[in-house]
Each structure stands twice: as structure tokens, then as C-alpha cells.
Design goal:
about 0% strand; about 300 residues; mainly alpha; 14 helices
């Protein structure tokens, strides 16, 4: 890979990280005006539109290149990506937004960030292997970080909702499983996301309609919903995948993702006005150390 190619990959990766760092703020702003399921429905719709547009651009490019078909395998095996869409985005974001609805953003964001750890733990049995000692050590280390974030000593600070904590951690497990399942599909990434979001949207429209078609009531609410749909659910993942496809150093690019949660805490403080607890920063740092500990065997 040439230096310009690596530079482009790094720019794309940093762009994805920058966008992801803002979504916790968008979640909380949108949830001031919407219930979690309503935010899932509207954000999924905007993400579905963006994915459809990108799919059309890809199809037009294929036609201009003389390719008269979609990538291999994308015309069949549509059922599984559709079923996967009921898991992510529908179940995953419903649970994640419910966690944000119950917790401060500075707690929900790092607790959900345990997904890379669950990814390592789940990848072993799905590939017919047992979790290694490093996997388990990483899990234990990250659990210490979870305790640091969740535990509130009796000093007048408000305790965290236990259900919210469980939802934030559970969303990480769902994300990890859905990602692993998606990587086993031989189908174009944009098409896979579009099929999954189409299936989820079909269910969400019915739920949303039966709830009385709630909408945001302010421009900030609308901007937040659209921001979530465009930069959390769809486009940013494609930007990230594009960076990984263009680099010969995926580990170095992958490590950039660990910047996101710390930048996010800055936005949470500046925009939402939450006072960031030192224990939150320390807990997030310990979670990242746990993730890196579990990944060390794969880099070695």
C-alpha cells in the first residue's frame, strides 16, 4: 500500500471515529423528545434511506463498469441477513436507547463499549474453540472497569439504575453476536445492511404507527434523530470498513477506535453539561486495557 493510500485509510478511520464520538450526545438529545422505540424507528428510516442511496450509487458504478450483476452471493441467501436485521438494528438499538434513557450518557457509553470484549469471548465458541486465558483475563480486567463506572459510594451522588446497567452491557453482547454473524455471510456489505434494515423497518413501522406516529417536537430533536440515523447506524460503518479495506496495517487502524469513547466524554461534558466523574474516565481506561489484553494473543 502506498503512503497516500495509507493516509487515505487513516483519514477515513479518523472520520469514522470522530462521527462515532458524537452519537452519545445525539442519543440523549433525541431521547428528551422520544421514547427509545420511537427513536429506533425514525433513525432506522433515515439510515435505510442513506443505505439505499449508496446501493444505487454502487449499482450505477457497476453498470458503467460493464458489470451486469450484484456481487457474488448477493442474489441469494437474503433471508438470513433479513433475520439478522431483527437483531441489529431493531433489538440492539432498542436495548441501547433504553439504557441511555435510564443512565447518564457518561455511564451508558463506556458500558456499551464492552462489545469488543464480548466479541472476543463469543468468537471462540462460534469457531469451535474455547476462550483462552487472555480472553478471560481481559474479561476480568474490564469487569473492574464496569464496577468503577457503576459503583457510586454514598457521598450524595445518585446511584445508577441497575436495569440500565444491564441493558447497556446486554447491548454489547447483542452487537458482538450480530457482527460475528454478519461476517459469515458472503454478501456485499452495503446490500447486507440494506436488507437487514429493510426487515427491521417493516416491523418498526407497524410498532411506531400503533404508538400514534410520534415525532420530535423541536429542530434539535429532528437533527439528533437524523444524525443518529446517518452517522451511527449506517454511513459510518461503511466509512470504517472502507478504511480497513484500504490499509495493509488493519491493527494500527483498528486501534484508532479506542480514541472514540474518550472524545465522546468531552462532547458529553461540553454539550450535555454532565460533570464527568474521575471514576468514569478510570473505568473506561480499565475497560480498554481489558480489551487490549484479550486482543494481545491475536496480535502476537
Amino acid at each position: 500500500m502506498t503512503a497516500p493510500g495509507e493516509r487515505k485509510a487513516a483519514i477515513m478511520a479518523l472520520g469514522a471515529v470522530a462521527l462515532w464520538s458524537t452519537v452519545a450526545v445525539a442519543f440523549k438529545l433525541a431521547l428528551k423528545e422520544l421514547e427509545p422505540i420511537d427513536l429506533v424507528a425514525l433513525a432506522t428510516f433515515f439510515s435505510w434511506l442513506s443505505l439505499g442511496a449508496m446501493l444505487l450509487v454502487k449499482a450505477a458504478g457497476a453498470v458503467r463498469s460493464g458489470v451486469d450483476r450484484l456481487p457474488a452471493g448477493s442474489k441469494r441467501n437474503i433471508l438470513f441477513p433479513a433475520l439478522l436485521g431483527l437483531l441489529n438494528p431493531l433489538a440492539y438499538y432498542w436495548i441501547l436507547f433504553a439504557a441511555y434513557h435510564r443512565l447518564p450518557a457518561q455511564a451508558a457509553q463506556p458500558l456499551n463499549y464492552t462489545w469488543p470484549l464480548f466479541l472476543a469471548i463469543l468468537a471462540a465458541p462460534l469457531s469451535g474453540k474455547k476462550p483462552t486465558g487472555r480472553d478471560l483475563a481481559g474479561l476480568l480486567i474490564s469487569l473492574v472497569g464496569v464496577v468503577l463506572i457503576s459503583w457510586r459510594p454514598r457521598t450524595g451522588s445518585e446511584s445508577l439504575d441497575p436495569l440500565g446497567i444491564a441493558l447497556a452491557l446486554g447491548s454489547g453482547i447483542i452487537w458482538a453476536y450480530s457482527w460475528l454473524a454478519g461476517t459469515r455471510l458472503r454478501i456485499d456489505g452495503t446490500l447486507r445492511l440494506f436488507v437487514g434494515f429493510s426487515a427491521a423497518l417493516a416491523v418498526l413501522v407497524v410498532i411506531w404507527w400503533r404508538r400514534g406516529t410520534p415525532f420530535p417536537i423541536s429542530p434539535v430533536g429532528w437533527i439528533s434523530v437524523i444524525w443518529v440515523g446517518l452517522f451511527e447506524m449506517g454511513i459510518t460503518f461503511l466509512l470504517w470498513n472502507g478504511a480497513l479495506e484500504r490499509t495493509e496495517r488493519p491493527a494500527r487502524i483498528g486501534n484508532l477506535v479506542y480514541l472514540g469513547p474518550f472524545i465522546s466524554l468531552l462532547w458529553i461534558n461540553l454539550i450535555l453539561g454532565e460533570t464527568i466523574r474521575p471514576a468514569t474516565v478510570a473505568g473506561l481506561a480499565v475497560i480498554v486495557i481489558g480489551i487490549l489484553t484479550g486482543q494481545a494473543r491475536r496480535k502476537g
